[in-house]
Amino acid sequence: MSLTTSSSDYPAQTANKAVYNFGSGPGMMPPTVLKQAQAEMLDWNGTGISVWEMPFTGQDFQAIADQARQDLRELLNIPDHYRILFMQGGASAQFSLVPLNLLLSNPKTGADPKADYIETGYWSRKAIIEGSRYCQINIAASGRSSDFIEIPSVADWRLNTQASYCHITSNETANGLQYSELPNTGHVPLVVDMTSDFLSRPIDFQGIGLLYAGAQKNIGPAGLCIVIVREDLIREPLSSTPSAFSYQVIEQNNGRFNTPLTYGIYLAGLVLKYFKAQGGLSEIQSLNKKKSNLLYEVIDNNPFYHCAVSPAYRSQMNPCFTLVDAELTDRFVAQAGTRGLINLKGHSAKGGIRASLYNAMPLSGVLALADFMAEFAEGCCS
Ligand SMILES: Cc1ncc(COP(=O)(O)O)c(C=O)c1O
To answer: Is the sign of the CA dihedral 306, 328, 26, 144 positive or negative?
Structure first.
């Protein structure tokens, strides 16, 4: 099945024009899902109430949450020995919760816990700053010297064999670079912040200790964070960890230690079902490749635009580029907006343009952007 969706799905319509949302997150959601949520808002499945109002301990909500977990497991082919936790606090909370839950002192020497981090840009930096509040951090590799246009080669990483885990950011949303494959860190569990490329491609779980993803890019509403963790890593957290944020407590209580983000889990469940109906992650991945290749080709073939990231590391989710004259950036964003191509402004720390191409962005949106870019460049150069 193809992801080139039907004309009733796309583009989203306002009262008078088509809208393609290139925002980096919260990102564009499949219109089919939004319509389904709208239709079910007041009366879910003949219960006479909204999912919003449902008791989280009741059978109906449990069925919704279990189905979402099951669909996620199928989509990502998650092995049985991994647990799926629906947490709150977004991805940033995990910058603290990963160390609080995973750090271990060396059992032989009692030495202080340590963790490896790979620095590849804005978000990995944030994870490092937060993680360093809890343990001794080893930045095993950094792309800083090249201004984060490349990911340091795994062969050059200086990993610490005593580390409790090695943390990476699989897709740097602000810088527009992405690991084409997840690295192998040997017996040190790999922890991946997958917030901005989760469900954009299949994953091999070999070597993964834990992955987490804020939902607001590809799955659902902000605030929900999906954590997938290998069961042997679920253990007693550091004593200062709030119970509601202990992986162990959440898992032991089957996600019901306190009220979960019920409506967010329901919406994520609708998106997961939609992705399954689209043919799964291999189909999604090939469309994502097609969309980003198309955009990078437009950038590379027009001297008016420039992408600094080396081709091998370019993000399929968040292509970032600049205009030959930075002064024209605001005009580009404003004029694109009048065409319904919205939220193209680059991250505040980076400037330039960022066109986020999450799963819900159809090929027609990228084609519309490509047409606009050609016209804008021509208009400025003539
Ligand atoms: C890669 C990455 N990690 C973490 C975050 C932070 O997510 P949240 O706002 O849910 O805390 C973001 C947000 O854009 C992100 O792109």
So the answer is: positive
Contact 133, 125 (CB under 8 A): no
Residue ranges of the chain assigned to CATH 3.90.1150.10: 12-31+281-381
Between CA 373 and CA 329 the distance in angstroms is 12
User: Which one is catalytic: 193, 197, 291, 345?
Assistant: 193
Q: Indicate which residue's Cα is closest to atom 5 of ligand 1.
A: 91
**157 part of the active site:** no
Model pLDDT for residues 96-146, shown as the tens digit of each residue: 999 999 998 766 677 789 999 999 999 999 999 999 999 999 999 999 999
- Please give the Cα distance from 309 to 321 (Å, whole number): 9
| pLDDT tens digits along 146-196 | 999 999 999 999 999 999 999 999 999 999 999 999 999 999 999 999 999
C-beta neighbour count of 31 within 10 angstroms: 17
70 or 3, higher pLDDT = 70
Catalytic residue, candidates 44, 71, 116, 123: 123
- Spatial distance between the Cα atoms of 361 and 173, rounded to a whole number of angstroms: 16
- Closest CA to ligand 1's atom 4: 91
Ligand 1 site: residues with CB under 6 angstroms?
A: 25, 90-92, 123, 169, 173, 193, 195-196, 214, 222
Selected from 3.40.50.11750, 3.90.1150.10, 3.90.180.10, 3.40.190.170, the CATH number assigned to the domain covering 12-31+281-381 reads: 3.90.1150.10
